[in-house]
Amino acid sequence: MKEILIENQSLMARILLVEDDEDNISLLTRLLEHHGHILSVATDGESAVLRAQEERPELVLMDLELPPTADDPPDPNAGLEATRRLKADPLTSGIPVIALTAHTMAHHQERIAAAGCDALQEKPIYPFENLLSKIAQFAPGDV
Fold first, then answer.
1. 3-state secondary structure of 55
2. At what angle do helices 45-55 and 78-88 cross, to 10 degrees?
3. No. of helices (H) and no. of strands (E), the chain
4. pLDDT for 98-133, tens place per residue?
5. Residue 75 · residue 65 · CB < 8 Å
6. What CA dihedral angle connects 37, 134, 19 and 125, to 10 degrees?
7. Would you kindly state where each structural domain of the chain is located, as residue ranges?
8. Where do runs of H (alpha helix) occur along 35-72?
9. Is 5 helix (H, G, I), strand (E, B) or coil?
10. Per-residue confidence (pLDDT) for residue 5, from 0 to 100
11. What is the CATH code for 5-138?
């Protein structure tokens, strides 16, 4: 991947952030853009799948509990279902998905892996370097 410098920051990866909490969106956007990543945001499962198909990001950060569609209340399985749909579609099946969740017990991890997530990031995300390390594992180029 060609490196482009903007204000002494390298552009690292095009990331689709799937998150419905405005505070989390704001925090992750600021932190990830500060580290040179380009973000796009979806706030429900349906728009996440459509955006991934249209934009073909290099990585998806998927909150697991979010509305299935813009008109629905949050559902604890909507992020897993969106991930299944991404992994079943030949256009998006190769895009790595990092699950963002507070549920990290063994049975949760099994469900997350079974849905097709490539990694898990515990929420709250601290220290932030943990997420950056996971992104570096999956993003192409010199991340």
1. helix
2. 30
3. 5, 7
4. 999 998 888 889 999 999 999 999 999 989 999 999
5. yes
6. -110
7. 5-138
8. 45-55
9. strand
10. 36
11. 3.40.50.2300
